[in-house]
């Protein structure tokens, strides 16, 4: 659907060159939701803006549905851009126009008549759940409602792909959830391909089929979202994932503990409880569960258990080795520092 080939974007300021995007090659498939995550300055916006040539790449290619966008004339590019919708953190609505006019205005460039524009705009407002706000002005709306208007507007020309530039970053957690649900709905119902950039791994966890992690203009890791959460490779990816899957055990509890504290990670179909009960039945150790949580990513379970094992040292080690055959295991230190570089079975 979109393929980016060896794309670089270098900004020339008065006294130096700044590399925004550094030799990125990636592709987004038809119908998927693809997330690009990274800290501020990683190059996410630059990359996203290169996808619709809002920013002209310094080198490389952007191919949309077989068309090399950089080879188009300005007029051809304007037409091609109609198949790429975009929404922004700051909504970018026309404040002097009503909600309906904001959406209908996007159809101005098409050859559709006024009545048809109004009909289509109302239909889109219905899709985003804002039919009752058609005659209000953006200033009368909440942030979430403004983002719904901008989503409706972005869909006016039946785009093939929607680019989302930190679309939920200005919203509270509940509103973020409702906007993410809406994006998922239009992805599933309209088959719309979505590329989003975010600094929140939670957003990736909620809706992305695949994702990429960016740092200093480069993609440092890319893959299917569940796999990325279950088996992160890069340190930066691990840090992002911790922001979602982290657990905090009280320092005092760890310091006081006389046993061995074991962190286990369960992926896919493995049921954590049965492995734990198996362990307690077959080894002369006792266990005290300190933490247990199952996250669902792309409808697949990813479980975390922390258990304190006590017993003879050698028996505890045997028990740990046994579990290590089945799941990822890490023994946590007692000083309260929790590491997440879990090693063990795949
Ligand atoms: N117009 C510009 N002129 C000069 N440098 C720029 C320009 N736009 C971006 N940069 C630089 O390119 C690098 C990548 O910026 P970019 O905005 O793409 O990152 P980002 O990951 O989207 O960060 P943020 O989330 O803060 O927007 C940064 O070093 C930034 O300062």
UniProtKB/TrEMBL annotation:
Xref: Pfam families: ABC_tran, NIL
ABC transporter domain ranges (all copies): 2-241
Transmembrane segment boundaries: none
InterPro entries membership: AAA+_ATPase, ABC_transporter-like_ATP-bd, ABC_transporter-like_CS, ACT-like_dom_sf, MetN_ABC, MetN_ABC_transporter-like, NIL_domain, P-loop_NTPase
Superkingdom of origin organism: Bacteria
GO molecular function annotation: ATP binding
Protein name in UniProt: Methionine ABC transporter ATP-binding protein
Species name: Halobacillus campisalis
Upper classification of the organism: Bacteria, Bacillati, Bacillota, Bacilli, Bacillales
């Amino acid at each position: 659907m979109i393929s980016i080939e060896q794309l670089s974007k270098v900004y020339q300021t008065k006294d130096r060159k700044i590399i925004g995007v550094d030799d990125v090659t990636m592709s987004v498939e038809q119908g998927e939701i693809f997330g690009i995550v990274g800290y501020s300055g990683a190059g996410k916006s630059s990359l996203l803006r290169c996808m619709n040539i809002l920013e002209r790449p310094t080198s490389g290619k952007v191919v949309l549905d077989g068309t090399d966008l950089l080879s188009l004339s300005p007029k051809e590019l304007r037409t091609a851009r109609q198949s790429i919708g975009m929404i922004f953190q700051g909504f970018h609505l026309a404040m002097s126009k009503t909600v309906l006019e904001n959406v209908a205005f996007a159809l101005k460039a098409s050859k559709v008549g006024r009545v048809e524009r109004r009909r289509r705009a109302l239909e889109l407002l219905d899709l985003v759940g804002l039919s009752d706000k058609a005659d209000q002005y953006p200033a009368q709306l909440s942030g979430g409602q403004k983002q719904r208007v901008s989503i409706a507007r972005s869909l006016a020309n039946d785009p093939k792909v929607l680019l989302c530039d930190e679309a939920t970053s200005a919203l509270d957690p509940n509103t973020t959830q409702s906007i993410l649900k809406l994006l998922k709905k239009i992805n599933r119902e309209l088959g719309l391909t979505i590329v989003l950039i975010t600094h929140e791994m939670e957003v990736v966890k909620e809706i992305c089929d695949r994702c990429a992690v960016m740092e200093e203009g480069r993609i440092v890791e890319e893959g299917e979202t569940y796999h990325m959460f279950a088996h992160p490779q890069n340190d930066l990816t691990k840090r992002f994932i911790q922001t979602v899957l982290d657990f905090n055990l009280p320092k005092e509890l760890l310091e006081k503990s006389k046993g061995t504290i074991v962190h286990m990670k369960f992926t896919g179909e493995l049921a954590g409880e049965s492995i734990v009960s198996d362990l307690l039945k077959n080894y002369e150790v006792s266990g005290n569960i300190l933490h247990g949580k199952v996250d669902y990513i792309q409808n697949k379970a990813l479980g975390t258990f922390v258990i304190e094992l006590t017993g003879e040292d050698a028996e505890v080690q045997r028990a740990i080795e046994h579990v290590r055959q089945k799941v990822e295991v890490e023994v946590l230190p007692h000083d309260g520092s929790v590491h997440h570089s879990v090693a063990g079975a795949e």
